[in-house]
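Readers of this paper often ask what the protein records in our data store actually look like. This encoding replaces a full spatial description with a residue-level series of whole-number codes. For reference, a complete record is included directly beneath this paragraph.
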Amino acid sequence: MFKSFKNLLRWQISAKDLNSLYEVILLIMNYSFLLSFIISVVIALIAIAFYTLIERKFLGYFQLRKGPNKVIFLGLPQPFADAIKLLTKEQSTPLPSNSKLFYIAPTMGLILAALLWIIFPHNNASIFISFSIIYFLCVSSLNVYVTFISGWCSNSKYALLGALRGVAQTISYEVSITLILLCTLIIIITIDMHIITSHLYSWVIIIISPIFVIWYITNLAETNRSPFDLAEGESELVSGFNTEYSRGLFAIIFIAEYANILMISLLTVVFFTGHVQYINNSFIIFKTIIIARIYLWVRATLPRMRYDILMSLTWKTFLPIRLTRLILITSLLYNI
């Protein structure tokens, strides 16, 4: 009887251990999404830091001058030195500004940029969004509010003028992005990025190369990159909608902008180029770096456009081409 009681006691102890282990496993499974999201955002922030370093080095070579290569080894700590400098400077807030929105707007921009990295199609993802492309369009469209609120709450004429420019530019080129994605998705026949990266073996860029050129130009305008950085035109608007921002808030706007650039480069790779299934992650990252470097080449080469030419480019030139291509591709694929 003593032995049976002892065995029963051991069984109860082992059952409790198994129950606690099961609870720990459930807890890990429930928080795996949060952990994966945090890791993705941290890696994206590190990529942004070194992308700014690459940009400064490339601009130095393009303009026949020295880049940031004096800090220790090849200037690698330079991005972190810049971050420390921006975060330790004095924060100035304009007295007539709306102080709450003044702090909320840059934070909102950084959060939206971070939320886009949920759909990063790597092999070890803990969440799968079936409508990831629709999710991308919904989240990226909210950046219009960030630009407008940043310029309006500063209570500055320069900032408000830059915000109005940025809102008109962003809305116009979002229409362009949506129509181009429709042309691409009709060929791919899915809106799940994980399915695209694991099953797309043909290069869509070869099939609709004129659309890819328009896509790339549209992305330059959507991310406020030169020669379409008219919302932040320093020569006309004293930095545009972020005129009154300094220190950490300026750094947040800066980080959000570069995070969007890297995300758009990643989406360009996913939508327009094929993939190798067994080296998916490394191959996608390699092609993303190439696409992101072309942004630097364009910035060092082309001058800034005039604003009316920028707006007429999308409505009078790109829109007829996009609609014609969309009708043509649809009719060819579905025999309409």
